């Protein structure tokens, strides 16, 4: 089903850019001799692999968002899972779960950066392999819970299809009976549908809200910790820690802008009967598809050693590596 050329083109362009930027990012992280990332290297690679998986999911299960009065609908636009089937909502729920996966990975990043400053022995002694295995399991758990909420609380129903049938037909000239979707209907419906819609949206909000709270609390503690630790750390180590935190801050702002805010507008716009213009809804699906390639670019941009590798791939000039025990440091450049 065709929405418009922006909705059709941007996710596909994002897919191509993701499969360029993330492999390049993995190469830079694994081959860099100027920055000693330690165990953090594996967490960054895991994030890049997750981004690639999210891009594949977005290509195979492209979605759009439609809202009408008290209903919001996330539906599969095209591809092998677009035709309505008995189990068609399972891949759609899986696709939506990558939003929760992003929250989970950022939670782990903030905890890692915090422990690096407060109790670095834990990172050095246990992160490989136990910490990495726990991180992967934690992200999968996040995605699993989100999928269950979508599948059991926000699954489609004949009453939902009847509620949005005419406006959906008028806008897209397609029948809502032919598509797979998950939805919430918050009023003007049977009590059971209204109850499970509110339950689903509140549970999803809890997942997002506790993650956002963790970002701000640990972010504050990391900033204050850096200010205290900078007295005893070397200048290069302090600079690297601040650069890594800036990159993490940008990594956090990106999903807030392209995921948390668009989802909240869709959810609560329908729940509170706030009618936004239609482009706000389909643009939210487009924005989510951009995260996998924006994420590695943020880290590359804010880490000068990686940025210089992109700008100067031949690596002209002599370099030396500064090693700081249990920390990450950037090499000093000599001209």
From TrEMBL:
Keywords: Membrane, Transmembrane, Transmembrane helix. The chain crosses the membrane at residues 12-30, 42-72, 92-115, 127-149, 198-223, 244-267, 279-303. It comes from the Eukaryota. This is G-protein coupled receptors family 1 profile domain-containing protein. The lineage of its organism: Eukaryota, Metazoa, Ecdysozoa, Nematoda, Chromadorea.
